[in-house]
Amino acid sequence: MSAPRPTRRTMLKAAGGLTVAAGLGAGTILATSAAANAAGDGFGLHITERNEDDPRMWYYRFRTDQIGWAPAVNVLLPSDYHSSGRTYPVVYLLHGGNQDFMAFDHLRIRDLTAGKPIIVVMPDGGKAGWYSNPVNSNAGPRNWESFHINQLIPWVDANFRTYGEFAGRAVAGFSMGGFGALKYTAKYYGHFASVSSHSGPASVRRDAGLVVHWANVSSAAVELAGGTIYGAPLWDEKRVTADNPMENLERYRGKRIFLVAGTSPSPDPFDYANETQVLAGHREFRAALDKANIPFTAHEEPGGHLVRPNRLVEDLDGMIAHLKKA
Protein backbone atom coordinates (compact mmCIF):
# COMPACT_ATOMS: atom_id res chain seq x y z
CA MET A 1 0.00 0.00 0.00
CA SER A 2 1.09 3.53 -0.11
CA ALA A 3 0.30 5.79 2.78
CA PRO A 4 2.45 6.12 5.91
CA ARG A 5 1.99 4.30 9.16
CA PRO A 6 0.61 6.64 11.81
CA THR A 7 3.88 6.64 13.76
CA ARG A 8 6.68 9.13 14.32
CA ARG A 9 9.03 6.86 12.41
CA THR A 10 7.11 7.04 9.17
CA MET A 11 6.50 10.72 9.52
CA LEU A 12 10.26 10.93 8.89
CA LYS A 13 10.36 8.32 6.13
CA ALA A 14 8.96 8.27 2.60
CA ALA A 15 6.78 5.36 1.61
CA GLY A 16 9.56 3.96 -0.55
CA GLY A 17 12.14 4.20 2.19
CA LEU A 18 13.45 7.53 0.91
CA THR A 19 13.91 10.53 3.17
CA VAL A 20 11.82 13.45 2.05
CA ALA A 21 13.73 16.72 2.09
CA ALA A 22 12.13 19.43 4.14
CA GLY A 23 11.14 22.62 2.43
CA LEU A 24 12.15 23.72 -1.05
CA GLY A 25 15.90 24.10 -0.65
CA ALA A 26 18.18 27.09 -0.35
CA GLY A 27 17.88 27.94 -4.02
CA THR A 28 14.14 28.58 -3.95
CA ILE A 29 13.12 32.09 -4.84
CA LEU A 30 9.70 33.24 -3.73
CA ALA A 31 7.76 35.76 -5.73
CA THR A 32 5.82 38.58 -4.16
CA SER A 33 2.06 38.34 -4.29
CA ALA A 34 1.96 41.18 -6.82
CA ALA A 35 4.37 39.46 -9.19
CA ALA A 36 2.56 36.17 -8.83
CA ASN A 37 -0.79 37.78 -9.52
CA ALA A 38 0.56 39.42 -12.65
CA ALA A 39 1.56 36.00 -13.99
CA GLY A 40 -2.04 34.86 -14.14
CA ASP A 41 -4.32 32.96 -11.78
CA GLY A 42 -7.38 31.01 -12.81
CA PHE A 43 -9.44 27.84 -12.52
CA GLY A 44 -9.89 28.49 -8.80
CA LEU A 45 -6.12 28.73 -8.24
CA HIS A 46 -4.35 31.80 -6.89
CA ILE A 47 -0.56 31.72 -7.24
CA THR A 48 1.16 32.66 -3.98
CA GLU A 49 4.75 31.64 -4.83
CA ARG A 50 6.61 30.85 -8.03
CA ASN A 51 10.13 30.23 -9.31
CA GLU A 52 10.84 30.12 -13.03
CA ASP A 53 14.58 30.78 -12.83
CA ASP A 54 15.60 27.23 -13.77
CA PRO A 55 15.33 26.67 -17.55
CA ARG A 56 13.47 23.40 -17.02
CA MET A 57 12.03 23.02 -13.51
CA TRP A 58 9.38 25.63 -12.74
CA TYR A 59 7.75 25.78 -9.32
CA TYR A 60 4.36 27.15 -8.22
CA ARG A 61 2.39 27.25 -4.99
CA PHE A 62 -1.33 27.94 -4.97
CA ARG A 63 -4.13 29.03 -2.73
CA THR A 64 -7.26 27.02 -3.50
CA ASP A 65 -10.57 26.46 -1.76
CA GLN A 66 -10.13 22.71 -2.30
CA ILE A 67 -7.14 22.39 0.05
CA GLY A 68 -6.80 23.94 3.51
CA TRP A 69 -3.16 24.91 2.92
CA ALA A 70 -1.20 26.05 -0.15
CA PRO A 71 -0.19 23.01 -2.23
CA ALA A 72 2.70 23.18 -4.68
CA VAL A 73 3.61 21.73 -8.06
CA ASN A 74 6.82 21.28 -10.03
CA VAL A 75 6.51 21.51 -13.81
CA LEU A 76 9.50 19.97 -15.60
CA LEU A 77 9.87 21.24 -19.15
CA PRO A 78 11.63 19.51 -22.06
CA SER A 79 15.18 20.65 -22.73
CA ASP A 80 14.15 22.46 -25.93
CA TYR A 81 10.85 23.87 -24.67
CA HIS A 82 11.90 27.53 -24.90
CA SER A 83 13.41 27.30 -28.37
CA SER A 84 11.25 24.80 -30.22
CA GLY A 85 7.82 26.42 -30.18
CA ARG A 86 6.36 22.91 -30.23
CA THR A 87 3.40 21.55 -28.28
CA TYR A 88 4.16 18.58 -26.03
CA PRO A 89 2.44 15.61 -24.43
CA VAL A 90 2.24 15.78 -20.65
CA VAL A 91 2.45 13.26 -17.82
CA TYR A 92 1.13 13.86 -14.31
CA LEU A 93 3.57 12.09 -11.98
CA LEU A 94 2.05 11.41 -8.54
CA HIS A 95 4.12 10.89 -5.39
CA GLY A 96 3.68 8.25 -2.70
CA GLY A 97 2.54 8.45 0.91
CA ASN A 98 4.45 10.74 3.27
CA GLN A 99 6.07 12.39 0.27
CA ASP A 100 5.40 15.67 -1.52
CA PHE A 101 5.82 17.42 -4.87
CA MET A 102 9.63 17.24 -4.53
CA ALA A 103 9.77 13.43 -4.34
CA PHE A 104 10.67 12.76 -7.97
CA ASP A 105 13.19 15.60 -8.04
CA HIS A 106 15.03 13.69 -5.28
CA LEU A 107 15.02 10.71 -7.66
CA ARG A 108 16.83 12.72 -10.35
CA ILE A 109 13.82 13.18 -12.60
CA ARG A 110 15.63 16.03 -14.39
CA ASP A 111 18.40 13.66 -15.48
CA LEU A 112 16.00 10.84 -16.31
CA THR A 113 14.00 13.07 -18.66
CA ALA A 114 16.88 14.96 -20.31
CA GLY A 115 16.22 15.22 -24.04
CA LYS A 116 12.78 13.62 -23.80
CA PRO A 117 9.91 15.50 -25.53
CA ILE A 118 7.39 15.44 -22.69
CA ILE A 119 6.28 17.83 -19.93
CA VAL A 120 6.24 16.30 -16.44
CA VAL A 121 3.85 17.78 -13.86
CA MET A 122 4.50 16.75 -10.24
CA PRO A 123 1.87 18.08 -7.79
CA ASP A 124 1.37 17.79 -4.07
CA GLY A 125 -1.13 15.07 -3.17
CA GLY A 126 -1.05 15.16 0.62
CA LYS A 127 0.97 12.98 2.98
CA ALA A 128 -1.97 10.57 3.08
CA GLY A 129 -4.44 12.19 0.71
CA TRP A 130 -4.95 9.09 -1.43
CA TYR A 131 -5.77 11.29 -4.43
CA SER A 132 -9.33 11.51 -3.13
CA ASN A 133 -12.00 13.81 -1.78
CA PRO A 134 -12.54 12.38 1.71
CA VAL A 135 -15.87 11.47 3.18
CA ASN A 136 -15.06 13.79 6.07
CA SER A 137 -12.16 15.92 7.30
CA ASN A 138 -11.49 17.60 10.64
CA ALA A 139 -8.49 19.48 9.22
CA GLY A 140 -10.22 21.71 6.68
CA PRO A 141 -10.68 20.93 2.98
CA ARG A 142 -8.47 18.15 1.57
CA ASN A 143 -10.11 17.59 -1.79
CA TRP A 144 -7.05 16.38 -3.70
CA GLU A 145 -9.08 14.80 -6.48
CA SER A 146 -10.95 18.02 -7.25
CA PHE A 147 -7.76 20.07 -7.00
CA HIS A 148 -5.95 17.89 -9.55
CA ILE A 149 -8.75 17.14 -12.00
CA ASN A 150 -10.83 20.33 -11.96
CA GLN A 151 -8.20 22.96 -11.24
CA LEU A 152 -4.61 21.90 -11.87
CA ILE A 153 -5.04 20.11 -15.22
CA PRO A 154 -6.95 23.01 -16.84
CA TRP A 155 -4.42 25.48 -15.40
CA VAL A 156 -1.49 23.52 -16.85
CA ASP A 157 -3.13 23.28 -20.26
CA ALA A 158 -3.81 27.03 -20.23
CA ASN A 159 -0.29 28.04 -19.20
CA PHE A 160 1.98 25.57 -21.02
CA ARG A 161 2.17 24.24 -24.56
CA THR A 162 0.50 20.92 -23.84
CA TYR A 163 -1.87 18.76 -25.83
CA GLY A 164 -4.88 19.32 -23.61
CA GLU A 165 -6.63 16.19 -24.79
CA PHE A 166 -6.85 12.46 -24.18
CA ALA A 167 -4.23 11.52 -26.80
CA GLY A 168 -1.64 13.86 -25.31
CA ARG A 169 -1.97 13.13 -21.60
CA ALA A 170 -0.62 10.39 -19.27
CA VAL A 171 -0.71 9.78 -15.53
CA ALA A 172 1.74 7.73 -13.48
CA GLY A 173 2.70 7.36 -9.86
CA PHE A 174 4.48 5.52 -7.11
CA SER A 175 2.76 3.68 -4.25
CA MET A 176 -0.18 5.85 -3.15
CA GLY A 177 0.45 7.78 -6.37
CA GLY A 178 0.29 4.56 -8.40
CA PHE A 179 -3.14 3.96 -6.93
CA GLY A 180 -4.07 7.55 -7.74
CA ALA A 181 -2.97 7.09 -11.35
CA LEU A 182 -5.05 3.93 -11.78
CA LYS A 183 -8.02 5.56 -10.08
CA TYR A 184 -7.92 8.79 -12.10
CA THR A 185 -7.58 6.89 -15.39
CA ALA A 186 -10.70 4.81 -14.81
CA LYS A 187 -12.81 7.45 -13.09
CA TYR A 188 -12.03 10.21 -15.62
CA TYR A 189 -12.22 8.07 -18.70
CA GLY A 190 -11.36 10.67 -21.35
CA HIS A 191 -8.47 12.33 -19.53
CA PHE A 192 -5.50 9.95 -19.85
CA ALA A 193 -4.37 7.74 -22.73
CA SER A 194 -1.61 6.11 -20.66
CA VAL A 195 -1.50 4.96 -17.02
CA SER A 196 1.40 3.61 -14.98
CA SER A 197 1.53 2.21 -11.46
CA HIS A 198 4.92 1.74 -9.85
CA SER A 199 4.16 -0.32 -6.74
CA GLY A 200 0.68 1.13 -6.38
CA PRO A 201 -2.35 -0.90 -5.21
CA ALA A 202 -4.60 -2.16 -8.01
CA SER A 203 -7.11 -4.14 -5.93
CA VAL A 204 -8.53 -2.38 -2.88
CA ARG A 205 -11.11 -4.94 -1.71
CA ARG A 206 -8.84 -7.98 -1.55
CA ASP A 207 -7.95 -9.40 1.90
CA ALA A 208 -11.14 -8.00 3.43
CA GLY A 209 -10.49 -4.54 2.00
CA LEU A 210 -7.05 -4.09 3.51
CA VAL A 211 -6.16 -1.17 1.24
CA VAL A 212 -9.42 0.62 2.06
CA HIS A 213 -8.80 0.14 5.78
CA TRP A 214 -5.25 1.43 5.37
CA ALA A 215 -6.43 4.48 3.47
CA ASN A 216 -8.86 5.24 6.29
CA VAL A 217 -6.37 4.68 9.12
CA SER A 218 -3.47 6.55 7.53
CA SER A 219 -5.58 9.49 6.39
CA ALA A 220 -7.19 9.78 9.82
CA ALA A 221 -3.78 9.85 11.51
CA VAL A 222 -1.80 12.03 9.11
CA GLU A 223 -4.10 13.97 6.80
CA LEU A 224 -7.62 14.49 8.14
CA ALA A 225 -7.31 14.81 11.95
CA GLY A 226 -9.57 11.83 12.49
CA GLY A 227 -11.56 12.09 9.28
CA THR A 228 -11.43 9.31 6.70
CA ILE A 229 -11.20 8.79 2.95
CA TYR A 230 -13.98 6.20 2.67
CA GLY A 231 -15.91 6.51 5.93
CA ALA A 232 -15.79 4.49 9.15
CA PRO A 233 -16.96 2.22 10.60
CA LEU A 234 -19.12 1.85 7.47
CA TRP A 235 -17.58 2.54 4.09
CA ASP A 236 -19.15 4.62 1.36
CA GLU A 237 -19.39 1.59 -0.91
CA LYS A 238 -20.08 3.63 -4.05
CA ARG A 239 -16.82 5.50 -3.54
CA VAL A 240 -14.87 2.30 -2.98
CA THR A 241 -16.30 0.79 -6.15
CA ALA A 242 -15.60 3.94 -8.19
CA ASP A 243 -11.97 3.99 -7.00
CA ASN A 244 -11.20 0.27 -7.28
CA PRO A 245 -9.29 -0.62 -10.48
CA MET A 246 -10.52 -4.21 -10.25
CA GLU A 247 -14.15 -3.07 -10.52
CA ASN A 248 -13.58 -0.79 -13.51
CA LEU A 249 -11.68 -2.95 -15.99
CA GLU A 250 -13.49 -1.77 -19.12
CA ARG A 251 -12.39 1.79 -18.44
CA TYR A 252 -8.78 0.77 -19.14
CA ARG A 253 -9.54 -0.63 -22.58
CA GLY A 254 -7.74 1.14 -25.41
CA LYS A 255 -5.21 2.75 -23.07
CA ARG A 256 -1.53 2.04 -22.47
CA ILE A 257 -1.07 0.28 -19.10
CA PHE A 258 2.32 -0.13 -17.40
CA LEU A 259 2.70 -1.93 -14.05
CA VAL A 260 5.73 -2.59 -11.81
CA ALA A 261 5.81 -4.52 -8.51
CA GLY A 262 8.57 -5.92 -6.31
CA THR A 263 8.95 -9.60 -5.50
CA SER A 264 11.37 -9.55 -2.56
CA PRO A 265 10.64 -6.85 0.00
CA SER A 266 13.06 -6.32 2.85
CA PRO A 267 12.40 -7.71 6.36
CA ASP A 268 11.20 -4.24 7.38
CA PRO A 269 7.53 -4.87 8.30
CA PHE A 270 6.38 -1.73 6.51
CA ASP A 271 8.21 -2.57 3.28
CA TYR A 272 7.08 -6.19 3.45
CA ALA A 273 3.43 -5.38 4.11
CA ASN A 274 3.31 -2.76 1.36
CA GLU A 275 4.90 -4.68 -1.48
CA THR A 276 3.39 -8.04 -0.59
CA GLN A 277 -0.06 -6.48 -0.88
CA VAL A 278 0.89 -4.56 -4.03
CA LEU A 279 2.27 -7.67 -5.76
CA ALA A 280 -0.81 -9.74 -4.97
CA GLY A 281 -3.08 -6.96 -6.18
CA HIS A 282 -1.12 -6.50 -9.41
CA ARG A 283 -1.33 -10.22 -10.14
CA GLU A 284 -5.09 -10.17 -9.56
CA PHE A 285 -5.49 -7.07 -11.75
CA ARG A 286 -3.31 -8.50 -14.53
CA ALA A 287 -5.25 -11.77 -14.56
CA ALA A 288 -8.49 -9.84 -14.89
CA LEU A 289 -7.09 -7.68 -17.71
CA ASP A 290 -5.91 -10.84 -19.49
CA LYS A 291 -9.34 -12.43 -19.19
CA ALA A 292 -10.92 -9.27 -20.59
CA ASN A 293 -8.38 -9.15 -23.48
CA ILE A 294 -7.04 -5.76 -22.39
CA PRO A 295 -3.31 -5.44 -23.24
CA PHE A 296 -0.78 -4.25 -20.66
CA THR A 297 2.94 -4.28 -19.88
CA ALA A 298 3.97 -5.56 -16.45
CA HIS A 299 7.21 -6.22 -14.61
CA GLU A 300 7.93 -8.10 -11.41
CA GLU A 301 11.29 -6.97 -10.08
CA PRO A 302 13.54 -8.08 -7.21
CA GLY A 303 13.34 -5.77 -4.23
CA GLY A 304 10.62 -4.07 -2.29
CA HIS A 305 8.56 -0.89 -2.17
CA LEU A 306 10.54 1.65 -4.16
CA VAL A 307 10.82 3.46 -7.48
CA ARG A 308 13.12 1.70 -9.95
CA PRO A 309 14.74 4.39 -12.14
CA ASN A 310 15.33 2.00 -15.05
CA ARG A 311 11.65 1.10 -15.15
CA LEU A 312 10.66 4.75 -14.83
CA VAL A 313 12.80 5.60 -17.87
CA GLU A 314 11.29 2.66 -19.78
CA ASP A 315 7.85 3.91 -18.77
CA LEU A 316 8.55 7.47 -19.93
CA ASP A 317 9.81 6.21 -23.28
CA GLY A 318 6.66 4.11 -23.63
CA MET A 319 4.45 7.12 -22.90
CA ILE A 320 6.26 9.22 -25.51
CA ALA A 321 5.86 6.47 -28.10
CA HIS A 322 2.15 6.12 -27.31
CA LEU A 323 1.06 9.73 -26.88
CA LYS A 324 0.61 12.44 -29.48
CA LYS A 325 4.03 13.52 -30.69
CA ALA A 326 5.61 16.87 -29.87
From TrEMBL:
Broad enzyme group: transferase
Transmembrane portions of the chain: none
Keywords in alphabetical order: Acyltransferase, Hydrolase, Signal, Transferase
InterPro entries listed in its UniProt record: AB_hydrolase_fold, Esterase-like, Mycobacterial_A85_antigen, TAT_signal
Pfam assignment, any one: Esterase
GO MF, any single term: hydrolase activity
Catalysis performed (reactions): 2 alpha,alpha'-trehalose 6-mycolate = alpha,alpha'-trehalose 6,6'-bismycolate + alpha,alpha-trehalose; an acyl-CoA + a 1,2-diacyl-sn-glycerol = a triacyl-sn-glycerol + CoA
Source species: Kribbella shirazensis
EC number(s) on file: 2.3.1.122, 2.3.1.20
PROSITE patterns: TAT
Name assigned to this protein: Acyl-CoA:diacylglycerol acyltransferase
SUPFAM superfamilies attached to this UniProt entry: alpha/beta-Hydrolases (SSF53474)
Signal peptide coordinates: 1-38
Recorded superkingdom: Bacteria
Family: Belongs to the mycobacterial A85 antigen family.
